[in-house]
């Protein structure tokens, strides 16, 4: 049996969970290939191949999915009636209705949804909304996220269906909230800027999923295609990227390695 896991991860949480899926499946002698949906060529060629199951993972952004994941769900191809699908979100809150929406998208394409789950992870946007995760809470969240991932895999292997019940109304509410957020994205992205400490290493520029950053007159400039994934803020090696001119504590430090950033 072999499967493929498609993910988007701004700051490492969703990829961290994807890595857990890969290693837990490996313990059961099942191959799972991980594909970042930012890599459109890889997505295109993988979609043509036969897999026994697929997994889609995404962070929650203002009650909904980042555009990059919506585009992927629109483009993903039908395989065959027996292809099973697991969908999961990671979010700063306890749970999210977003996997219900992801499941519906894949169901329309003919996939058989066998798990729909939201996994609580550290909040990477705490400087705008929610609480800043401390070291202890991060450790606790990672331990329970790993446990939940194991639970999903074991049930999948035993042919049990795991659907966390969520209301359609909450999905609709998230969609409305996200549409408001989408319109204010260009304005909100103006909250991001770099300080004198920037050493022009180019990490933010080459790793931005939107190719939205350039260097002009010796400064990193953030343009209007930003999706506010927060990657640039959390990956800067000298922590020179601020939000509303505030220095940010890079709480994703121990998780971000999972992204295997370009250097
Ligand atoms: C712009 C933005 C909006 C967010 N909105 C929510 C939200 O509505 N609910 C929530 O629980 N977490 C929210 N979060 C937190 C992220 O969903 C969470 O930290 C996620 O695990 C990040 O995953 P990643 O590291 O793979 O990008 C938001 C994060 C960002 C950057």
UniProtKB/TrEMBL annotation:
Pfam assignment, any one: Flavodoxin_5
Keywords, sorted A to Z: 4Fe-4S, Iron, Iron-sulfur, Metal-binding
Domain spans labelled 4Fe-4S ferredoxin-type: 189-216, 217-246
Matching InterPro entries: 4Fe4S_Fe-S-bd, 4Fe4S_Fe_S_CS, EFR1-like, Flavodoxin_dom, Flavoprotein-like_sf, PSI_iron-sulfur_center
Cofactor: [4Fe-4S] cluster
Keyword flag Ligase: no
Function: Ferredoxins are iron-sulfur proteins that transfer electrons in a wide variety of metabolic reactions.
Name the UniProt record assigns to this protein: Ferredoxin
Species: Clostridium algifaecis
């Amino acid at each position: 049996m072999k499967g493929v896991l498609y993910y988007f991860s701004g700051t490492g949480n969703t990829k961290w969970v994807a890595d857990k899926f890969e290693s837990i499946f490996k313990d059961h002698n099942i191959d799972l290939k991980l594909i970042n949906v930012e890599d459109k060529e890889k997505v295109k060629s993988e979609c043509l191949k036969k897999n026994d199951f697929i997994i889609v993972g995404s962070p929650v952004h203002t009650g909904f999915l980042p555009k990059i994941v919506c585009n992927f769900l629109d483009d993903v191809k039908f395989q065959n009636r027996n292809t099973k699908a697991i969908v999961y979100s990671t979010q700063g809150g306890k749970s999210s209705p977003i996997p219900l929406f992801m499941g519906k998208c894949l169901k329309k394409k003919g996939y058989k949804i066998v798990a729909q789950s939201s996994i609580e992870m550290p909040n990477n946007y705490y400087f705008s909304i929610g609480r800043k995760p401390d070291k202890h809470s991060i450790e606790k969240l990672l331990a329970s996220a790993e446990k939940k991932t194991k639970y999903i895999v074991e049930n999948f292997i035993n042919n049990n269906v795991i659907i966390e019940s969520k209301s359609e109304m909450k999905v609709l509410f998230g969609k409305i909230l996200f549409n408001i957020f989408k319109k204010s994205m260009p304005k909100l992205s103006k909250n991001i800027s770099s300080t004198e400490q920037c050493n022009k290493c180019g990490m933010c520029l080459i790793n931005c999923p939107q190719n939205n950053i350039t260097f002009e007159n010796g400064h990193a400039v953030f343009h209007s295609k930003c999706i506010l994934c927060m990657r640039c803020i959390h990956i800067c090696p000298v922590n020179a990227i601020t939000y509303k001119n505030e220095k940010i504590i890079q709480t994703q430090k121990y998780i971000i390695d999972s992204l295997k950033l370009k250097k």
